[in-house]
Amino acid sequence: MHFAPLSPTLASKHDADKSEILEFEVLLILLFMIGILKRCLSIMAGEDVIRGLADVRGKLENAVQKLSYKPHSEPRLVAVSKTKPKELVIAAYDAGQRHFGENYVQELAEKGSDPEILERCPDIKWHFIGHLQSNKVSKVLSVPNLHMIETVDSEKLATTVNQNWGKLGKDYNLKIMVQVNTSKEEGKSGCSTDCAKKVVEHVLNNCPNLEFVGLMTIGMYGYDVSLGPNPDFITLKEVRKDVSEALNRSEETMELSMGMSDDFEHAIEMGSTNVRVGSLIFGAREKK
Ligand SMILES: *Cc1c(COP(=O)(O)O)cnc(C)c1O
Fold first, then answer.
1. Which residue owns the Cα nearest ligand 1 atom 10?
2. Cβ contacts of residue 51 below 8 Å, gap of 6+?
3. Which of 12, 112, 114, 261 could be joined to 143 by an S-S link, Cβ 3.0–4.6 Å?
4. Hey, is 66 helix, strand or coil?
């Protein structure tokens, strides 16, 4: 015997409802799994950062041990987080890292003001290490926890930073370094070795809201250390010696910011007090 369904249209409508509910559930489960996957990936990446950081710190300490003298203080490690997500900044902070560097104004502003970073990394110290244009100065200065600008390369820029910092009415001076174009490459930022002295003098004499910390160089990319001491590092040391003699200040009062992933151990060997390491901690960057 064959019974026709009471109402075929009703039955199939019911089935359709059911499958819609099913689809919805599958979607929910999928979303949930994507969430877990994303979390796992960021935890994994976070673990890589912790490992990279430990590795760099170990190498840094080794390089310090090999010095023939005992430095005033251990070279500062600035973790350069450019192009990397905030989760990795937080992971490195949780592993004890405090100094971070960014070289794009917009990216520094975003990370520096990020509510999660502000809450979870209250003691973070941002270094600006990129080329700074006068019209971007106030944006950089408004970043909470800005610690240092390493790339002041003209008297004019120093004046602008000094005036803007003064307007903010802080009760401490902003730390700055003077960037020197040691490789004399065209189009590279940093002032010439000759003008470095003038900029430093200007900062010391005419910029009461700034604290002069030292000299910084990026130098030529891809120098082969097996050829001997990096000429850029030699030049930066010479500039420091000149400035020290001309301005009658001891060399120890002037830091040297030099050395990146490829050569920070070599830079420490040559007297660097501030190394800026990115890819060795956070992994290779995609080209911007
Ligand atoms: C990106 C950058 C670094 C870090 O470079 P890595 O080779 O990734 O360590 C250091 N200093 C400056 C000025 C940079 O722009």
1. 276
2. none
3. 112
4. coil
Q: How far is the CA of 246 from the centre of ligand 1 (A)?
A: 31
In this predicted model, what pLDDT tens digit does every residue of 46-95 receive, in sequence order? 889 999 999 999 999 999 999 988 888 899 999 999 999 999 999 999 99
Q: What is the pTM of this model?
A: 0.87
- The residue whose CA is least distant from atom 4 of ligand 1 is 278
Phi (first) and psi of residue 266, to 5 degrees:
-60, -40
Cβ atoms of 129 and 78 within 8 Å: the answer is yes
Phi, psi at residue 194, to the nearest 5°? -70, -35
3-state secondary structure of 211: strand
Report the C-alpha gap between 138 and 163 in whole angstroms.
10
Atom of ligand 1 nearest to the CA of 151: 13
**Helices marked H in 95-230:** 105-113, 115-120, 137-141, 155-167, 193-206
pLDDT tens for 192-222 read 988 999 999 999 999 999 999 999 999 888 8
Which of 217, 210, 236, 102 has the alpha carbon at shortest distance from 158? 210
Query: What's the CA-to-centroid distance between 56 and ligand 1, angstroms?
Result: 14
Pairwise CA distance, residues 238 & 7, whole Å:
95
Ligand 1 binding residues, C-beta < 6 A: 80, 82, 103, 129, 218, 260-261, 276-280
34-43: long-range pairs with CB below 8 Å, 24+:
42/85, 42/87
DSSP assignment letter at 284: P
The backbone torsions φ and ψ at residue 287, rounded to the nearest 5 degrees and listed phi first, read -65, 135
Distance CA(24)–CA(17), nearest Å, equals: 11
Tokens of 224: 């082969």
> Which residue puts its alpha carbon closest to atom 11 of ligand 1?
276
Among protein residues, the one with the nearest Cα to ligand 1's atom 5 is 278
